[in-house]
Amino acid sequence: MRGTNAAGVAAVADAGAKTGNLLRFTGLFQTCFAAETLEALRKAKELKQIKEQDYELRFLQVPAINFVAVWLHGKSDDIILPLPPTFGRKLNAYQPYAESEIIKVLKPDAKEAMKAPNLIR
Fold first, then answer.
1. The pTM is what?
2. Of 68, 9, 62, 60, which Cα lies nearest the Cα of 34?
3. What is the Cα–Cα distance from 94 to 110, expressed in whole angstroms?
4. What is the pLDDT of residues 49-83, one digit of tens each?
5. Which residue from 38, 64, 87, 88 has the highest number of Cβ atoms inside 10 Å of its Cβ?
C-alpha cells in the first residue's frame, strides 16, 4: 500500500505437507489488478454475508479466458466479484455472484479455450 492506494500484491501458495506450513510466500508483484482488487474488497466489506460469517480472500485468475476476480471463500458459500474488464460478458465488475452463476457465464468460453491446438492437457 502507498497511503490508501494499492501498489501491488503479495502472492502465497500451498507449501505442501512436507514443510508443515500451510502457505509459503512466492513473491511481490506489481499488477494492473491491485487497485481493482482493493476496490472489490471495499465493495465486499458492505455485503450482508460478510457480516454473518468469515470469508477467506482468494484471487481468481483464469488467463485462458481473460477472467480475473476476487473470490471470497466461506464455509457455507462462496462470493465471486469479477474485476474489470469483463469483456462484454453478462457480468458486472465488482458485483457479487455465486459460484454457480460464474460457472454458467464462463462455461462457453472455457469450452472454446479447451479447443486450442496448443493447450497442454
1. 0.79
2. 9
3. 21
4. 999 999 999 889 898 899 999 999 999 999 999 99
5. 38
Q: Residue 98: which pLDDT band, with cuts at 50, 70 and 90?
A: very high
15 touches 22 (CB < 8 A): yes
Within 10 Å of residue 94's Cβ, how many Cβ atoms?
Answer: 19
Q: Which helix (H) or strand (E) holds 67?
A: strand 67-74
d(CA 74, CA 93): 21
Can you tell me whether residue 30 is helix, strand or coil?
Answer: coil
Q: For 49, left (φ over 0), alpha (ψ -120 to 50), or beta?
A: alpha
For the chain, what is the mean pLDDT?
A: 86
